[in-house]
Amino acid sequence: MKFILTSLLLLLPNTYATDDLKIENYRGKVVYIDFWASWCAPCKESFPWLNEVQKKYQAQGLVVIGVNVDREKAKADEFLKTTPAQFPIVYNPDGSMPKKFGVQGMPYAVIIDKTGKTIHTHIGFRGDKTKEYEHIIEGALK
Amino acid sequence: MKKWIALALAAWLFTGCASMGLDVGVEPWERELLSDEAMTFGSNPTRLGYEQHTYFSKEATSGGSGFSGGGCGCN
Fold it and tell me: Reduced to 3 states, what is the DSSP secondary structure of residue A64?
């Protein structure tokens, strides 16, 4: 009996509890969802800019949410120690959210307008394109 | 009873992941282990780097071995 129970235990997904993010709660706000992981180098690059836009457009109604897809929370926490985030982080170790949003690469950004419609997505992060990203955010905030 | 459960479980385990209804292929958010340096071939990273450089210069192509960056395809 013990063998069976142990075997069943091994079959359980070895991830911790996943957070639930309800986009509906953010109606009236422009939401920037950033999918990131500790093992993703461009994600690290994007954080200072994400902090910056969060600060710059917060008053106008922008909400930046970082969705972490690491399987181990410790790795995400270690990343956040060296790369602090000044925006809320949602942990999604089971990958249900990137699946729902059809994430095609890491990092992946989704911009949702005030009505809840996805108006823009981009794969990866490029420092030379931040003006372009900001232009889209500004357009959505109007 | 115990024997039958154990047998059924064993039979199910022997099918591996094929019968679990899992998607085949690695999704972009699942590349954690693949992006690990330990997942590249070869024992000497410097030498491998040179070899790869020679290879993609000759073939006018890059990628396909290991991972660069976060898998966004932008190197």
Answer: strand
Of A8, A42, A95, the CB nearest to B69: A42
Helix axes A130-141, A41-57, angle to 10 degrees: 40
Q: What is the pTM of this model?
A: 0.73
Query: Does B71 sit within 8 Å of A95, measured CB to CB?
Result: no
Cis amide leading into A84 (omega within 30):
no
Structure tokens of A36?
């990131």
Write out chain A's pLDDT in tens, 142 residues: 666 666 655 555 555 667 778 888 898 999 999 999 999 888 999 999 999 999 999 999 999 999 999 989 999 999 999 999 999 999 999 889 999 999 988 899 999 999 999 999 999 898 899 999 999 999 999 8
Stated as kind and residue range, the H or E segment containing A67 is strand A62-68
ipTM of the prediction: 0.72
